[in-house]
Design a protein that fits this description.
This protein is an alpha/beta fold. It contains seven helices and nine strands; from the N terminus they run E-H-H-E-E-E-H-E-H-E-E-H-E-E-H-H. The protein folds into two domains: about 150 residues, Alpha/beta knot; about 60 residues, tRNA(m1g37)methyltransferase, domain 2 (Trp Operon Repressor, Chain A), CATH 1.10.1270.20. The strands form three sheets. The chain has a five-stranded parallel beta sheet with strand order 2-1-6-5-7. A two-stranded antiparallel sheet has the order 3-4. The protein has a two-stranded antiparallel ribbon with strand order 8-9. Strand 8 and strand 9 form a beta hairpin. The termini are far apart. It binds S-adenosyl-L-homocysteine (SAH). The site of S-adenosyl-L-homocysteine (SAH) has 19 residues, from strand 5.
Length: about 250
């Protein structure tokens, strides 16, 4: 069982998501546990203050470093595995499926959520890594932490109903997933590709691989270089990329 914990000023934000749907079921089955810690428990003034104005001036408030140091000291107790500590920031390393796969192998992950204009830089020395969810700015790290938990948990054995479904999807082979269809085979004249109705498994697998290469070339050509394409697949990808160029 992997243990996730969050350090946050909004501990109540996590429960609705993590007790619903697949996350709720996986948690009930003991595939992961979750606990939120209120950063304000490590303050010592009457107002439980976690923020202050930045030295040097500027907009907004920053999170003070002291509560993070005190919290981490208490939470790194000897009776539990030492936590792998993740901070969140737009300046972090971009999160992707390979990071999810790596984190899913940890025993205990502590997700440290910033708010306001961010965190006093000195607290960053507590981080084993700093993760960015993408090139945009959120109001806090809580949504980022939930995205990490969700993407890790669904990789764990037994979390998804169908054991195969995490193996055969976007990024698992370095490509985007192929197009998928369900009934009806004809919706108001929009036909499902014939081969998918054929029952010919080899032909279906070949169509799907080709479709993955085409879609990746169209939408995410940056992924192609590390996807291990064959010569023929490269030729197809280049053809799609030229078409895309022409369309712009
Ligand atoms: N002033 C900061 C942004 C602070 S946003 C800056 O310009 O970098 C407040 C908090 O939200 C951050 O401390 C971080 O925990 C979280 N956050 C915002 N955007 C994020 C992103 N793209 N990825 C991960 N965390 C993010």
């Amino acid at each position: 069982m992997i243990r996730f914990e969050a350090l946050t000023v909004f501990p109540e934000m996590f429960e609705p998501y993590l007790s619903s749907s697949i996350m709720g079921r996986a948690r009930a089955r003991g595939i992961f546990s979750f606990e939120a810690h209120d950063l304000r428990d490590w303050t010592h003034d009457r107002h439980r203050t976690v923020d202050d104005a930045p030295f040097g001036g500027g907009q907004g408030m920053l999170m003070k470093c002291a509560p993070f140091f005190e919290a981490l000291r208490d939470l790194s107790r000897a009776d539990l595995p030492h936590p792998h500590v993740v901070f969140f920031s737009p300046s972090g390393v971009r999160y992707d499926q390979s990071v999810a796969q790596r984190l899913a192998r940890e025993e205990r992950v502590l997700l440290v959520c910033g708010r306001y204009e961010g965190i006093d830089e000195r607290a960053l020395e507590l981080a084993d890594e700093t993760i960015s969810m993408g090139d945009y700015v959120l109001t806090g790290g809580e949504l980022a932490a939930l995205a990490v938990i969700d993407s890790c948990v669904r990789l764990l054995p037994g979390a998804l109903g169908d054991e195969m479904s995490a193996l055969d999807e976007s990024f698992s082979d370095g490509l985007l997933e192929y197009a998928q269809y369900t009934r009806p085979a004809d919706f108001e004249g929009r036909q499902v590709p014939e081969v998918l109705l054929s029952g010919n498994h080899a032909a279906i697998a070949a169509w799907r691989r080709k479709n993955s290469v085409e879609r990746t070339a169209r939408w995410r050509p940056d992924l192609l270089e590390s996807a291990g394409l064959t010569e023929d697949e490269w030729a197809l990808a280049r053809c799609v990329m030229e078409q895309e160029e022409g369309r712009r």
